[in-house]
Amino acid sequence: MKQTMGQRLSALREAKGVNQIDVAEATGLGRTFLSMLEKDKKQGSIASLAALADFYQVSIDYLYRGVLPPDVAPNVHDGAEEAAWVGLWRDMNEPQRRMVLAMIKAAINSNVA
Fold first, then answer.
1. Using CA of residue 91, residue 62, residue 72, residue 103, what is the dihedral sign?
2. For a disulfide at 44, which of 29, 49, 77, 98, Cβ 3.0-4.6 Å?
């Protein structure tokens, strides 16, 4: 089943490790408004979707319809969680990226044994 816009927004927020207050402060949108968007009880304007797309580093089309840009291979972003990972990766500096990769490799290797 395809995710709703609210589910995509919620997953992106959770994957980024922020709460609705953090998103509200960063985007200038109200926390109540964000809550209603995540519950699919309200539709956002182009301006509000643009602010959220910029914050999560995804396209408005992805937020609204779950559609990836045509230049992105379908398997690059396999859902909101993966898109959020990419956004977080882009926010990191090189030492942070090396540390995260080492942690992920250690977690994977601990499950193999």
1. positive
2. 49
- Residue in 57, 51, 73, 67 with CA at minimum distance from that of residue 5: 67
pTM (predicted TM-score): 0.64
Q: Which residue, among 57, 50, 3, has the nearest Cα to 28 in the 3D structure?
A: 50
Give the separation between CA 45 and CA 68, rounded to whole angstroms.
Answer: 20
In CATH, the number for domain 5-112 is 1.10.260.40
Q: What are the structural domain ranges in the chain?
A: 5-112
Q: Kindly report, residue by residue over 28-68, the tens digit of the pLDDT.
A: 999 999 999 999 999 989 999 999 999 988 889 888 888 76
